[in-house]
Specification:
With 705 residues, the chain is an alpha+beta fold. The protein contains 23 helices and 10 strands. 68% of the residues lie in helices and 10% in strands.
Length: 705
Amino acid sequence: MAAMLQHARVNASSAAAAHPFVRAALLWLAPLSAAAAIVAAVDGWDGGVASRVGWVGLTVLWAAAGAALLLRREEGRLGLLALWFAFLAGAVSLAAAIVRDGGGGDVASLAQALGVALLPAAALQVLLALPSGVLRTRGAAAMVGSGYLVAAAVGIVLWTDRPAPALPVGIEAVLAAALGVSGAASRYRDARGAERRRMHWVALAVAVASEVVLVALTLRVLLGWPPSLLGIAAVATIPIPLALLLGTSRRLQGPAERLVVPSISLVGLTALVAAVYLVVVVGLGRAPTHDERTLLVLSIAAAGISALLYVPARRRLAEFSNRLVHGARRPPDELVRTVGARLSRAVPLEELLLQLAESLREALALEAAEIWTGSSGVLERVVSEPDRGPATLHPSAAEESVLARTGVSGRARIAVWLPQLLADRSDALVRVAPIANAGELFGLIVVERSAEGDPFDEEAEKVLAELARHVGLALRNVRLDSELQASLEELRRHAEELRLSRARVVAAADAERRRIERDLHDGAQQYLVGLDVNLGVVSGLMDSDAEQAKAILGELRASVQEAMRDFRDLAHGIYPPLLQDRGLPDALANAARRAPLATRIEPAGVGRYEPEIETTVYFCCLEALQNAAKHGGEGVRATIRLWEEEDALLFEVADDGVGLDAGRTAFGAGLTNMRDRLEAVGGGLRIESTVGRDTRVVGTIPLVC
C-alpha cells in the first residue's frame, strides 16, 4: 500500500509539473532565485567579494540547471529538486543581506537560519534521488524526511543562539554528505545501461566537490584559511548541476566514464595525504607556528605531486632499467603477458607458436628455441628458431607420464627420460619445459644457449614454465575443439544415415507391398480365376456328363491345394506364424528346408526375445541365404549359427562359396536392408570374406539397454 501511495505521489507530482501553467510558474523560481542572489551580492552581505561571487555562481547554475531540466518532460522531477536547491541558496543570500542591513527583524533571521540548515538536507535529497529525481526506496524517503526534520531543528538552534554557531551546521553537512555520497554510490553500482551512463558525470562532479572540500579543510587546519568552510562546501556543489545537465546528453556520456576512476583515485589520495599531515599536527600537541605551517603546506604539495607523478615515473624508470639490463630485448615477464593477451584474442595456433619461438629467443638471449607438439607416443618439432626442419620423437608412455608431471628440466634429467632429444646438441646449455595440462603431455618447449653463454637462472625457468602452462591450455582447447568438431561431424553423418535409412525403409515397405500385390495377381488370383471358370464348366456338365464333371472336380481340388500353398508361402514372406508361435530356431529350421541351397542350423541355447529382435534376426538370415545362393556359386552350402555373448544376441550366416572382397564390395540392396534392420534395434552388421574361399555375415543385437 505504501509503495502504491508513493507511486501515486510521484505520478501526481509528475503530472502537476507537466501542466503548462504549473511549469511556467515553477520556471519563475529560476530567475527569482538568481535575482535574489545578485541583489544580495550587490548589497554586500558578509563574506567578501570572492564569497559573494561564488554564491551568485552557485545559485545561478542550480537555477539554470533546474529550469533546463524542467523544460524536458522526462527530467521534470530532477529539475524540481535543482530549483528547490537554487531557491534555498537565493533565499539564504537575500535574508543574509537583509539581516546585515538591520531590516526584517526575526523573520529575516529565521529565514536565514532555516535556509542555511535546509541546504544540506536538499543536497542529500538530490543525491539520493539520482538519476531520475525519484526516491526509489522507503529507506531513502525516510532518510530524506529525517534530514529535513534535523535541518529544521538545527535552523531553530541557529536562530535562537546568536551569533549562530557553525558547528551544528557543519555536523549536519558532514552527515548529509556522507549519507548522500554513500547512497549515490550504491545507486551507481546497481544502475545498468542508460541509468549508469547518466550517473557518470554526477560521480565525476561529486568527486570534484569532495576534492575541493578536502583541500579546503586541510588548508583551514594548517593555515586557518579559508575563513568559511560551510561557504566553500556550498560552492563546491557547483559541478553537480552541470553534471545533471551533461548527464542528459548521450554524446557526452563517454568522456565522463573515462574520468571517473582517476578522479575517485585522486580524492582518495588527497584524503590519505591530508590524514597523514593531520596526524602530524596532532602529534605536535599544539597549533603549528607560521613557519611550521609554511613547511607543512609545502610538504603536502610535494607529497601530492610525488603521488601524482608516481605511476608515470615508475613506468619510465621500469622501461629504463629494462633497457639497461636487457638491452633492446623485451623483459621476460612482458613476454608472458604478451602471450597471454594473444591467446585471449584467439590468434591462430600456428602463428602463435611461431611468434612465441621468435620472442622467446629474443627475450632470453637464446641460441635456439623449439616447440614440439603431439601425443600418443609421437612428438613433432613444429616450430624452431632458427629453422631446423621437422623432427620426430617417440617417447614411451612412462616417459610421457614423467615429463607431464615434471617441471623445467636440465640436461641431466633429459638424458635419463628423453636422451634422443640431446642428439646433435653437443655441449649446449639446454632447458626443456613440458607443455602439459591436467596430467597429459601435449608437447615441449626446448631452448638452448651456447656453453659459453650465461647459465639459465630462476627467472628464465619461471618464464619457461609459465609459457608452457599457457601453451598447454591452448593446445588442450584446440584438441577439445577438434574432438567437438569430429563429434559434430559424426553426429551429422549419423543423422544423414538415419534419414537415408528411413527413406530406404519406406521404399522397402512400398516394394514389399508391390511384391505382395504381384504375387497375389500372378499366383493365387490366377488359381481363383481358373476355379471360377472350371466351376462354371462343371455346372454345365452336371446333368449332361457327370463323369466328365467329376474329373474336372478332381482337378479343381488340386488347384485349390496349390492356391493354399501359394497363400502359405506368401504369408511366410510377410511374417511367418512359426516365428511367433515357437521362436527363432524352429522358424529358421523351416526356412532352411525351403531355402534354395543346403542349409544347416546351429542354435546354441537361444530362447525367446522381443518380437522386433526375432523378426530382425529371421529376415536378416533369409536375406543372407538369398545372397549366398545368388553369389556363392554352384553347390554352395550354408550354416546358420545363433548364440548369446556378453548381453548380446549374435547370428552368423556362413557359406563355402567363392567369397568376395569385403573391403571393395559396396553394400547392395540386400545388405543395406540388413544393416538398416539391425541399426533400428541398436545392432550392427559385419561382413567377413576372402576372395576364392568363404563368406561370413555376422550380426549383433544388444539385449541390455
